[in-house]
Specification:
eight-stranded mixed beta sheet; five-stranded antiparallel beta sheet; binds biotin
Length: 256
């Protein structure tokens, strides 16, 4: 573990850099289960993950040494369980803020927390919470950002990376520093209960808001329009004249 000159209060102040691990989320979970308490804001960063995990049991692919694959420990005990979607908002807005300063304003959040540049995915988030009673004791925030990788397999879908957008490599440590700062700022907004600000910024950056797109629902493709997100984080999709709520397993945006 090393101390860093990060311009943050706590996120990234304690940083564990690994050349290889199965998954930074799993590594952090294991550290948490050890006897010694871990400081909030601890970051695990790996050059390579042999079993990187994505949402819905997908594999997260990232070429060795070319991308940011990290996990951050947060202890959002100020959030009750029915407020847990604020963590998704905090993290996706933090990543979005950071990437907007690097690539311009074309970055959006595809519900619930995929990070998109135009029509392509540049980053993803896997949040795993440890719950105690009615609140979240610990949250493991896994973040993957495609940085200096040029080629992606078909498994990565319509992926892009910073190098593909900027046409030059981006220093991973600089990105980490910027990211820790922007995530911490958004986290402090949540801690200060500035929920309206998080709600309106999240909505304002939501991919496909008020636009008609094709969605796969069950085995049917239907046209729908995202009109918002519910308090517990369900997608509000208007189909014909009716607004319906969907969770991640029930709906998939179909892009050309
Ligand atoms: C997604 O499916 O979009 C979420 C991807 C999350 C990937 C990151 S990489 C670092 C952390 N460790 C993991 O095993 N997964 C997350």
């Amino acid at each position: 573990m090393q101390n860093n000159t990060f311009l943050t209060l706590f996120v990234g102040q304690s940083l564990v850099k690994l050349s290889e691990t199965n998954s930074t989320n799993d590594y952090l979970k294991k550290l948490l289960s050890n006897f010694k308490p871990l400081t909030e804001g601890t970051v695990i960063m790996a050059d390579h993950q042999s079993a990187g995990r994505g949402q819905q049991n997908n594999v997260w692919e990232a070429e060795k040494g070319k991308n940011l694959t990290i996990s951050i420990l947060l202890n959002p005990t100020f959030l009750s369980l029915n407020q847990q979607f604020y963590l998704n908002k905090v993290v996706s807005l933090g990543i979005n803020d950071c990437l907007r300063t690097i690539v311009c304003d074309d970055c959006k959040i595809k519900w619930p927390n995929d990070i998109y540049h135009k029509n392509q995915k540049i980053g993803g988030v896997l949040i795993e919470n440890i719950v105690a009673g009615n609140y979240i004791k610990n949250s493991i925030i896994g973040i993957g950002i495609n940085v200096n990788q040029q080629n992606f397999s078909h498994l990565a879908g319509n992926a892009t990376s910073l190098v593909k957008i900027l046409r030059k490599d981006y220093e991973l440590n600089d990105l980490l520093r910027q990211l820790c700062k922007s995530i911490e700022s958004r986290y402090l907004q949540a801690k200060a209960k500035h929920f309206e600000r998080l709600d309106s910024d999240y909505l304002g950056r939501l991919f496909g808001l008020n636009e008609v797109h094709n969605y796969l629902i069950g085995d049917e493709i239907v046209q729908g329009k995202v009109v918002g997100v519910s308090a517990i984080g369900l997608l509000l999709l208007q189909i014909n004249d009716e607004v319906k709520e969907f969770d991640l397993k029930q709906v998939k945006l179909m892009l050309d």
